[in-house]
Amino acid sequence: MLLEAEGIVKAFGSFRAVDQASLVVAENELIGLIGPNGAGKSTFFNCLAGDTRPTSGTIRFRGQEITRLSPDRHARLGLARTFQVPIVFAGMTVRENVMVGALLRHPHRRRAAAEADELLHFTGLAERAEMPVTALGTSGRKRVEIARALATEPRLLLLDEALAGLTSSEVEAAIELVERIHARGVTLIVVEHIMEVIHRLTERVLVFHQGRVIAEGTPAEVTADPTVIAAYLGRRRRRAR
Amino acid sequence: MIPLRRAWPVAVLVILAIAPFLTANPFYQRVAALVVLAAISASAWNVIGGYAGQISFGHSIYFGIGAYASLLLFGRFGLPPIAGAPLGIVASFVVSLIIGPPTFRLRGHYFSMGTFAIAALAEILVVNWKFAGGAIGLMGPAMPRSLADLLFRNSLPYYAIFLAVLALLLALTHLMQRSRMGFYLRAIGAGERAAESLGVPVQRYKLYALLISGAFTALAGSLYAVMIGFVDPESGFGILISVNMVVIAALGGVGTLFGPLAGAIILVPLQETTNALLGGSGTGAAYVAYGLIIMLIARFSPGGLAELWPLINRNGRRRAA
Fold it and tell me: Which of B118, B156, B168 is nearest to B21 (CA)?
């Protein structure tokens, strides 16, 4: 197994943002995490990426325990991520942003620049390589983040709402990009709000609600699941009252 | 166009190298030496404060260590003051290793406040340190015993020494800027969390930057002590020493190779002239001007003069086209 997260709990005081969540990911899977706002998906996601230390539970990546390792160690081991709100390196060009990622495996500048150019081409940013990164809009910045993360040559890539805030034509392009990343042999976990995207992209979905995983299965299965419908829409009886 | 663009830094250094020899006025020569000295400490500060974006207000601690190391070795053991430079650098490493890891956990303004507090504490400690002259401070040699005392009546030899050190520091910074370390420091400055997620060992790189920055600042302190021949807690560890470095770098442009030098060329003559014109009672006047400059930078050009450079350049190119 590529990634095994077992019994993850993240508590803030008495509040459990994530409560006994588990996830097993095999090589080459494309998994979706969905759930209403505040369901705990992002916190769970941050635990996987090493940004947040879980209160209890263990995470293993390629057989090695990584539960308490720092984010940079995660990247080194081949687990990369993007952020919900893109964090680009202002003051650098688009290419330089991607080079920061590439320098992890290629310490020499020229080599890193060549790797970055390949990924800029792959993500459709080649023409904007020389631009200051701050000149890009949300969609462009999200692509920079993806290119940068790919530059660290990850085995597993975690995408945190990579499609949120995009226009419908941008969403199309982004879905196509995620598919191409998958085709490169990168395993993916995507957090997503848009149900249509989940339907089109993923083979397996975990549904979060109030910190717990309430359903797991193919997108068709979980959307037909009454507990999932109740979590998203509320219960009919309560509404009637 | 390209060879011309490559050539201009060299031109700047050549002009700097000959400029003070064109005047016989000792005041100008002295100011020229002080400009280069300020450029050394501001460029050293720039490594951690500019490239890595960690705005230290505590660099006076390094400057003071260098200055005191020089004059303590002279005062207590009769060694030439310059012998204190390596001692100051070693001491700066120790200080970086002690204050770096805890302060690096603070982000943004909190880091600035933390370093400020540490430097203020250091000044108080030195005031109460009898062995190091307490509040009175330390003197250098009154008469040169040998050439090793580096005691010259004229400022030009100091100017030449300082310029050599500055050239070394800028060459190192230039190499760093193009290396992985340069990219990593800029990434840390722009977005620590994202840098970390890309495999940058953030705390370690900040420490590397502080070690380099502190060592050169300590060297600047030693050189200052060698030239001036006197240091007390205020002129070594005073908070204005830190502020000086920050303002000079900010005026020229933080995180740029020549920004701190440009800032020093503008600010130090201003400071020295107001001091000379207003005498002892006017030493504060320069800092009133500093306050004004900080406001103007923050309001109109947060990137310093370096931010205006491309504008000038672009206009020039348009005119040429």
Answer: B156
> Which residues of A are less than 8 Å from B197 in CB distance?
49, 51, 71-72, 74-75, 80-81, 83, 149
* A113 and A214 fall within a common domain: no
- The residue with greater pLDDT, B153 or A190, is A190
What is the pLDDT, as a whole number, of residue B318? 40
Least confident of A78-87, A199-208, B167-176: A199-208
Q: Please give the order of strands across the beta sheet that includes A15-25.
A: A15-25, A3-12, A56-61, A64-65
Would you state the structure tokens that stand for residue A205, as one six-digit string? 């979905």
Q: Which two tokens stand for residue A136?
A: 């890009």
Ranges under pLDDT 50 in chain B: 1, 315-321
Which of A84, A93, A98, A100 is the best substitution to test chain B (most B C-beta atoms within 10 A)?
Answer: A100
Residue A171 and residue A97 share a domain: no
Q: Which of A80, A91, A148 has the CB atom closest to B190's CB atom?
A: A91
Residue A217's domain is classified under what CATH number? 3.40.50.300
Give the mean pLDDT of chain A. Answer: 86
Say yes or no: A99 and A215 in one domain: no
- pLDDT for res B321: 33
Region for A153 from its dihedrals, namely left if φ exceeds 0, alpha if ψ lies in -120 to 50, beta otherwise: left
Angle at B292 between CA B286 and CA B294, to 5 degrees: 100
Contact residues for A173 (Cβ-Cβ < 8 A; gap 6+): A124
